[in-house]
Amino acid sequence: MGSLCNSTNPSPVSALKLPGLDRCNSKLVCCSNSKTGSVVQLPMGSSPGNSQPKTLTGEAGYVLEDVPHLTDYLPDLPTFTNPLQDNPAYSVVKQYFVNVDDSVAQKIVVHKSTPRGTHFRRAGPRQKVYFESDEVHACIVTCGGLCPGLNTVIREIVCGLNHMYGVKKVLGIDGGYRGFYARNTITLTPKSVNDIHKRGGTVLGTSRGGHDKGKIVDSIQDRGINQVYIIGGDGTQRGASVIFEEIRRRGLKVAVAGIPKTIDNDIPVIDKSFGFDTAVEEAQRAINAAHVEAESNENGIGLVKLMGRYSGYIAMYATLASRDVDCCLIPESPFYLEGAGGLFEYIEKKIKENGHMVIVIAEGAGQDLLSEVLRSSDQQDASGNKLLQDVGLWISQSIKDHFSRQKKMTINLKYIDPTYMIRAIPSNASDNVYCTLLAQSAVHGAMAGYTGFTVGPVNGRHCYIPFYRIIERQNHVVITDRMWARLLSSTHQPSFIPAKDVIEDTKEAEEQPQTPRTQTSEDNSSDDKLSMNKEMNELPVIG
Ligand SMILES: Nc1ncnc2c1ncn2[C@@H]1O[C@H](COP(=O)(O)OP(=O)(O)OP(=O)(O)O)[C@@H](O)[C@H]1O
Ligand SMILES: O=P(O)(O)OC[C@H]1O[C@](O)(CO)[C@@H](O)[C@@H]1O
Ligand SMILES: [Mg+2]
């Protein structure tokens, strides 16, 4: 791969100071490396301290979408030897430190002529760090809705900082962003967080709304905080990006690291979000209960509502895992109730064939079918997210009305809404391990001076991803992908969309002008695992 202009310096922007700086075209400032032919590209007008996207290109279409570094705007920061070097636990690990040029490919299904494409900086410990242990004053904040694993991430940031880097000063911010300026802080030590991973929720508390950039950064500055760990979903990462920009503008030596949290799995680029596996597993319990109820009653229908405002991943994976579900309804797949090919017709068929059925519905599905009054589209939560109506209640009532009034058929419908129960449990074993890796990767990144990044796995390797890539889009189930086809063939439900419309929609989508960072439709061809299914599922953020 092509190396940076100054390969010993992790910050390509600081390389702008080196000889070789040139303007390559009208839009980009480039710095070429005569040995490798690699080029650092910065948007025109950029200068050290300006946090425009940092892109490096190399041979065969290689592109590195890099993250900011403290030296971008504080070029003279001293470096220190990584204390892990003398840590007996890690001393036997061969090549423990990540090579400064290591990066991870976003696209791993390739053809012989495929350009190498987008890469992200590989996460992990660096030989040189930009903070001394006793200099670090870190803080952790959790924002947005609950998600299994929040406490594990908090625990592992505290323990990672302490055990790997000897950092003693870690503060918990109470109650989300507004806690920076309106609430007390909590002192976090390895002892105080020792068993919090066994509990659901977040020991720090969380909230929506209350993001006040000025007050938050004032508080960071006043308290002498120099590493900020921000755990939350798309909204939180947007807030983190704003905080990072303000910190950079003030020229503070403060690293800002985002840890993506979303039970809905709607964050793009990363393989999947923590807590998702736990949520799918827990959803099985509700689906089982719905199945037992449906099977035990004459013309029984078990209806389960699962979370997923705009992304139906939990519903889709819970359905695929369960095999007891006859119909899965998600926001990405429009459906209709009446007439040929509609939901009522399918329910009648299933009841007549099997005597019962199970339906799973994601909370954001079918919102277009709710009456205008129910929709009350202007209601929002404190963060500005649109408040959705309870589609579960509405669809239960619609099914009951249809069969009792129109069909004169007695049905036994049991509606189960386990959403908050699913969100409130502690993470399962695999999510616990995942949370540990996320936390440690974030700590290594901040200690190495990276900032303005979200950490997460891309094709199984943890990376530092620039905020703009995380917040520009939302991850959605693509109903023209194989995974949704697998679901349809497992439930035998109607697709509710004539094939002709799907083909036309796809054509239309392909004809849309693509942003440079959006993958092409060719990438839609292989989706055997969730991680490979992500990038192509990105759609512009809704709402
Ligand atoms: N564009 C933005 N700029 C600054 N702050 C934001 C922005 N969007 C959201 N926030 C802040 O981020 C925090 C969390 O946002 P939100 O309530 O949307 O949850 P989230 O992080 O998206 O998590 P989830 O949706 O998974 O529950 C809130 O305190 C909100 O004020
Ligand atoms: O009731 P709250 O706390 O606003 O959270 C509900 C929302 O949070 C989410 O779980 C996302 O975190 C959505 O699926 C859901 O709509
Ligand atoms: Mg959100």
UniProtKB/TrEMBL annotation:
Protein name, as recorded: Uncharacterized protein
- The source organism is Vaccinium darrowii
Q: What is the lineage of its organism?
A: Eukaryota, Viridiplantae, Streptophyta, Embryophyta, Tracheophyta
